[in-house]
Specification:
By secondary structure, the chain is mostly helical. It has helices spanning about 1-20, 25-35, 40-50, 105-110; strands spanning about 65, 75.
Length: about 120
Amino acid sequence: MEFTFFMFWLVFSVVVAVGAAGRGRHGPGWFLLSMVISPLLAFLLLMMLPSRSKSAGAPETQELRKCPECAELILREAKKCKHCGSAVEPVAPVKEASVTYDVGKAFGRALGGESTGKEP
């Protein structure tokens, strides 16, 4: 009886982890959470939180712009508005800026070291 209960607990915890990963959350973390508190409670918490995953067909806001004629959102590369049919000039896509972060400097600042901005 106890073994069967543990197996159900384990299986439903794995289901919660897979569901969390599908919603863009950290699956192993949700697995551990569901093992500790309960798979049912973890599942309910997961369903209350918004999904972090991007839907496959939905464009990001950086890929959109407003049509000059009807002010509806269209893709930046569009040559014709899908809403009003007017011809529009395509705009080059926005390039993402790459950010570099020096973990060593941040760790040093966190420990109370001074930041001079100069490399050693």
